[in-house]
Amino acid sequence: MLHDVDLDVAAGESLAIVGPSGSGKTTLLGLLAGLDRPSHGQVSLLGTDLASLDEDGRAAFRARHIGFVFQTFQLIPTLTARENVLVPMELSGKLPAAERAARAVDLLHRVGLGDRLEHYPAQLSGGEQQRVALARAFANEPAILFADEPTGNLDADTGALVIELLMRLNAEAGTTLVLVTHDLELAGRTARRMRLAGGRVAGS
């Protein structure tokens, strides 16, 4: 449960939310992304009050403006890496089919998976799956990217590679980045840090 959390994030800024387990980090991220609704208070993204949207409206808003990277990857097991990256573009309908296909391939090449396009998640390592998830998160050129413990299930070397990819893709796209992490190296790469403890802001 969160208490009296007041947070402003500027366009293009990178913010790490840190704190002990159970401090409310993932809860806050879910509220910010419109995955959950607050019992009190307001969440405004890109000038839109999320409370003004119903569930379908919030889903459509996320499809247009938000990317999300999960600790557990959340890839669709019956789809290849290329098809997983295509999914958000197909849902948003922003690009013609040929451009969607080319962008999916380009993104996978950029994260070093050009030779894994037709591999299924079960055929990929954890680090490779997280790189597919990163490519998918950037597929629609989101204004905001939320990441929940993006290196939490990775070994140190693979985690460092994912950190480099995350920060590079973020810088290239000019995307606002808000992430939850226990990884001090990752938190140290962001422009700003916010610490939660007991559901309250406890410093930076």
What can be said about this structure in brief?
The chain is α/β, with parallel strands linked by helices and 204 residues long. 39% of the residues lie in helices and 16% in strands. The strands form two sheets. The protein has a six-stranded mixed beta sheet with strand order 4-5-6-1-7-8. A two-stranded antiparallel ribbon has the order 2-3.
For the termini, the CA-CA separation is 20 Å
Number of helices: 7
CATH topology: Rossmann fold
The helix-strand sequence is: EHEEHEHHHEHEHEE
Mean pLDDT: 90
Please give the CATH class: Alpha Beta
Largest sheet: 6 strands, mixed
Poorly predicted segments? none
Features:
204 residues; alpha/beta; Rossmann fold; two-stranded antiparallel sheet; 7 helices
Describe the structure.
- By secondary structure, the chain is of the alpha/beta class.
- The chain has a single domain, classed as Rossmann fold (3-Layer(aba) Sandwich), CATH 3.40.50.
- It is built from seven helices and eight strands.
- It has helices at 25-32, 55-65, 81-92, 97-110, 126-137, 156-173, 184-188, and strands at 14-18, 44-45, 48-49, 66-69, 144-148, 176-180, 192-197, 200-203.
- A six-stranded mixed sheet has the order 4-5-6-1-7-8.
- A hairpin with a 2-residue loop joins strand 2 and strand 3 (48-49).
- Helix 3 packs across helix 4 (97-110) and helix 3 (81-92) packs parallel to helix 5.
- The radius of gyration is 17 Å and the shape is globular.
- It starts with 13 loop residues before the first strand and ends with a strand.
- The model has no long low-confidence stretch (mean pLDDT 90).
